[in-house]
Amino acid sequence: MLNLIATLAVGTVISFIVFKLAVALYKKVRSPLLNPLLVTVAVIIALLCVFHIPLDSYESSVQLVSFLLGPATVALAYSVYRQRQILKQHFIPIFCGCLVGSVVSMISAYTLCELLGLGDEMATSFIPKSVTTPIAIAVSEQLGGITSITVAAVIITGILGAIFAPLMSKIFRVNNRIAKGVAIGTCSHAVGTTKALEMGELEGAMSGVSIAVSGLLTTAIVIIVSCFA
C-alpha cells in the first residue's frame, strides 16, 4: 500500500511541477507556441525517454490525475449554472452554435480520415476530438475507437485551438464576445478555454458553457446514430 501511495505521489507531483513551470514560462514569454499543456507533454516525453521509464509505469503513477478527470467534467455544470442568465437570454444562438460546431467537427474528422485511407477504427477514434477528454474517451469506446488515439487528438485539437483562436477571430472578423467563447469552447474544449479566459471573462465563461453543451450534444448524437446504425 505504501509503495502504491509513493508511486502515485511521485508521478502526480512531478507532473504538477512540470506544468506549473510551463505556466510560469508562458506567463513570462506570452508566446502561443509555449502553450503550458504542449510544453508539459513535450517535457514529460523527454523525461520518459531520457530516464528510460516505461509508459505503463508513468500511467500508473498518474492515476490520481486520471481519476480527477471525471469530477472535473461534472464540475462543468457549475459554469453553466453561473452563466444561466446569459444562457437563457442567448439560448438559441448558443445551442445552435454548439450543435453546428459539434456536427461539423465529427463529420469533418471522420471524412478526412476516410479520404486518407486511415480505416474505420482510426476514423471513429478522431470523431470526438473536440470535446473534453472524459467525454471523448466514453464516446470513442462507444464507437469502438482507440482511446489512446482519441486522447492524443483531443490534446492536439485543444492546443491548436488555443494557438489559433485569436487569429481566426481576426481573420473572420468575429467581434461578438459570446460568439468567440462559444466557438472556442465547442471546437477546442478546456485547453482552448484557457485562451478564451485571457481574451475576456465573458469569452471564458461562454467557452466553459459550450464545453458542457457540446459534450452533451456529441454524446447524444453518437448514441442516436449508434442506435440506428
Automatic annotation (TrEMBL):
It is a multi-pass membrane protein. The keyword DNA repair does not apply. Keywords: Membrane, Transmembrane, Transmembrane helix. It comes from Senegalimassilia anaerobia. Signal peptide: none annotated. This is LrgB family protein. The chain crosses the membrane at residues 6-26, 33-55, 61-80, 92-112, 143-166, 209-228. InterPro entries: CidB/LrgB. One of its GO terms (cellular component) is membrane. It is found in: Membrane. Pfam families: LrgB (PF04172).
